[in-house]
């Protein structure tokens, strides 16, 4: 954790220590990412990107139809029919989630009860294991996503699911057997709550713009719900990137690529500032690089 | 992740779903904590509690002299000589840290170079292993703290250290061999950055009041530093609880107690809302219960 000399107007540089060497070398992952060949990146379909404009800022979310096809389809319908417009951020719980909801409108369609898309068979997907141990399951990556696997849950390689990490987007639901209809969503703003894995339809992750939303005031009611309408943050408009002319194209690193393996090794073995590299990194720390296509 | 029906003034309860059952039963840990006998709690020395009043609110921090005695002593000297008063929160980096610094004052003493208290021998402490696997080391608990161990690092049970989790407080430093002097501190506001373990003098954890600080605007400069003096959040005053007449006494659960083991089991096997208990929980999820003495 790097120090910085505070530039007090009246008393600069009085801490009596040498100014820090700039820039800090936390690790070499940034360079590996910058140098990765084009073949190690996967384009993200603009129809799988949801762009949310709120009173706090813009949040760009990538949807994951391979993991929760019915929920993602329901969310896209809600977006296309404008049902998130004038919705609200209703809940901000510290070290947990920011949660928001579409605006109720009886004239517009909502999904029928959806299947419990909390995990899926591995079959048809390619699982790249993380080299490091995981507390909860077998950690790894599938087609650009942080995922986990239970090899014993069924034939042909078992069952897989998206992991709950900082920035993961999931579907709010009531107690079982409710599975949520996609009209209430949340993103994680704290330590990865992996105990939610296989209990929620995870539908995506934040690509950009989580910061001003993670910095919203925490709600004062149970579970961080805001107390009154005045506290709730307005959602101005939600569209798919495919509906927005000129919206930037995004890409994610291919998690089966040599570049991604090298990024993970670098993150597990940080240098410069670090006197003792960890030699490992947990699943939520091994974020998949994403960026607008340069 | 629980849904809630948004109470829009004009259109309440129009989501077409049953109202949620209240209250949700996330797990039984709260009841175990409430029922734990007095013998399963450890009093926290008021001389090890730092009370920080900032423009955002009050943050109460417990110091850990057993793990970083020289750094904690230096911090207490800074507090007692008023050097954090009129300090600043200088950095807020999303999914990482809130960092603050004492006010530079050449007339007041600062610590001489301090030893690298990044880990310590287990000897003299009691390590209670977590029953669950850890990515980084051997996870466990020592006298009310989330800790980790490297049994091979030296004789008599090896080496131990405080883990970097949400709310952990560490000492900012420059590149090695600098070890920090305690005048610049941070707390974690994101996924537990365990790669910092054994690289930083961890000196404590937040007992209360992290929420308004975790909700501060993220800094716009590299590493989340605030750009200018106007952005920095003022620290009004920092005192030890032992200096504040009538300040509440605090306690922490004894991590060697049967109650704490039961809390961990409950957290690893949540019920009610959960259709598939995880059967495990990572170190940062297994927070040690703390509270004002009832």
Task: Quickly list its features.
five-stranded antiparallel β-sheet, 4 helices, globular, 16 strands, Cyclophilin, alpha+beta, homodimer, 294 residues, eight-stranded antiparallel barrel
Could you characterize what this model shows?
Two copies of one chain form a homodimer. Chain A is of the alpha+beta class. Chain A has a single domain, classed as Cyclophilin (Beta Barrel), CATH 2.40.100. The first copy, chain A, has helices spanning about 30-35, 70-80, 210-215, 260-270, and strands at about 40-45, 50-55, 55-65, 90-95, 95-100, 120, 125-130, 140, 145-150, 160, 170, 185-190, 200-210, 235-240, 250-255, 290. Chain A has an eight-stranded antiparallel β-barrel. The first copy, chain A, has a five-stranded antiparallel beta sheet with strand order 6-10-9-8-7, with no helix packed on it. In chain A, strands 1-15-16 form a three-stranded antiparallel beta sheet, with no helix packed on it. In chain A, strand 2 (about 50-55) and strand 3 form a beta hairpin. The first copy, chain A, is globular and about 55 Å long. Chains A and B meet through strand 4, strand 5 and helix 3 of A and strand 4, strand 5 and helix 3 of B.
Quick overview:
2 copies of one chain form a homodimer. Chain A is of the alpha+beta class.
CATH topology of chain A: Cyclophilin
CATH class of chain A: Mainly Beta
Main pleated-sheet profile of chain A: 8 strands, antiparallel, barrel
Quaternary status = homodimer
Q: From the alpha carbons, calculate the radius of gyration of chain A and give it in angstroms.
A: 21 Å
Order of helices and strands of chain A: HEEEHEEEEEEEEEEHEEHE
CATH superfamily of chain A: Cyclophilin-like
Largest interface: A-B, 99 and 100 residues
Total number of helices of chain A: 4
Distance between the termini of chain A: 30 Å
Strands of the widest sheet of chain A, in order across it, are 2-3-13-11-12-5-4-14
- The proportion of strand residues of chain A reads 25-35%
Number of domains of chain A: 1
Average pLDDT score of chain A: 92
Question: Outline of chain A, from the CA principal axes?
Answer: globular
pLDDT under 50 segments of chain A (min length 5)? Answer: 5-24
């Amino acid at each position: 954790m790097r120090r910085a000399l505070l530039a007090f107007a009246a008393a600069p540089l009085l801490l009596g220590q040498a100014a820090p060497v700039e820039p800090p070398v936390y690790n070499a992952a940034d360079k590996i990412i910058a140098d990765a060949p084009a073949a190690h990146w996967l384009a993200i379909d603009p129809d799988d990107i949801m762009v949310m404009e709120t009173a706090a800022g813009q949040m760009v979310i990538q949807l994951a139809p391979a993991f929760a096809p019915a929920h993602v389809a329901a969310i896209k319908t809600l977006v296309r029919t404008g049902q998130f417009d004038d919705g609200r951020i209703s809940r901000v719980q510290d070290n947990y989630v920011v949660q928001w909801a579409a605006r109720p409108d009886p004239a517009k369609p909502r999904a029928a009860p959806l299947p419990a898309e909390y995990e899926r068979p591995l079959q048809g997907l390619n699982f790249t294991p993380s080299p490091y141990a995981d507390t909860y399951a077998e950690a790894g990556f599938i087609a650009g996503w942080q995922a986990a696997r239970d090899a014993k849950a069924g034939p042909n390689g078992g069952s897989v699911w998206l992991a709950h990490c900082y920035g993961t987007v999931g579907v709010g639901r009531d107690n079982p057997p409710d599975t949520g209809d996609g009209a209430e969503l949340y993103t994680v703003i704290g330590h990865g709550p992996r105990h939610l894995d296989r209990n929620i339809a995870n539908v995506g992750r934040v690509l950009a713009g989580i910061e001003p939303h993670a910095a919203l005031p925490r709600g004062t009611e149970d579970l961080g719900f805001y107390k009154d309408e005045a506290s709730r943050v307005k959602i101005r408009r939600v569209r798919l990137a495919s509906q927005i002319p000129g919206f930037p194209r995004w890409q994610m690193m291919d998690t089966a690529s040599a570049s991604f393996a090298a990024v993970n090794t670098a993150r597990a073995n940080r240098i410069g500032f670090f006197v003792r590299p960890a030699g490992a990194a947990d699943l939520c720390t091994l974020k998949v690089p994403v960026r607008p296509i340069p």
